[in-house]
Amino acid sequence: MIEINNVTKDFAGKKRAVDQLNLTIPDGKIIGFLGPNGAGKSTTIKMMTGILPIDQGTISLNGFDIEKNAMDAKKIFGYVPDRPDMFLRLKGIDYLNFIGDIYNIPTEIRRKRITKLTQLFSIDHALGDYIQTYSHGMRQKIIVTGVLIHEPEIWILDEPLTGLDPKSAYTLKEMMREHANKGKTVFFSSHGLEVVEQLCDEVAIINNGKLLFYGSLDDMRKQYESNQSLEQVFLELTNNE
């Protein structure tokens, strides 16, 4: 479970990025986090993962406060950032072993997980190459693989499908569903509203740092007394802000 309580974030000389955000993400569901560019999605995710400090409020992951119990919280989530251009001077296998070392994954278990995941994402042939030689899609796959090898309870994914080929995107979506079906948490942001509509159990819509809606698509249709698609409701909500 992810609990975001009265969270606010300001940047000097700019408008408030996140404004008293309250959001409780339950276990066992895939939650889509939506909003136009500059709405506060990535800022929220970076506070959830401890990358950015929280100005006001608290965020906890499975009961661990991300600021007060940072190490405990960081052990239980996996984070895919919106840009995969990291650790470019490492070879793919060195990056994955580096992640394995951080999470103290035993060698034999690590080897099996790396083999399984890299074959699923069709990058097993490139593990001996430097990440800087990878295409954008391959970089995304190696980052996703690194996130998953320690089998975190909570997945926090910022635009995880960007750059993935159809087969790999399908594989990741299937893995997200399997993870949620095990009673774990999947929280991901996306601009692909059709994907969110097909995949997510619930959606949270944010704009100008404020939560506009949180609930299932059925809840949305009841609240707005409409049979419109998620795309249509999303555009109406964000255009009215």
UniProtKB/TrEMBL annotation:
CDD domains, per the entry: ABC_DR_subfamily_A
Top-rank taxon: Bacteria
GO molecular function, one term: ATP hydrolysis activity
Alphabetized InterPro entries for the sequence: AAA+_ATPase, ABC_transporter-like_ATP-bd, ABC_Transporter_VariousFunc, P-loop_NTPase
Keyword Transport: yes
Keywords: ATP-binding, Nucleotide-binding, Transport
Sequence ranges assigned to domain ABC transporter in this UniProt record: 2-233
SUPFAM superfamilies hit by this protein: P-loop containing nucleoside triphosphate hydrolases
PROSITE patterns referenced in this protein's UniProt entry, alphabetically: ABC_TRANSPORTER_2
Pfam families: ABC_tran
Protein known as: ABC-2 type transport system ATP-binding protein
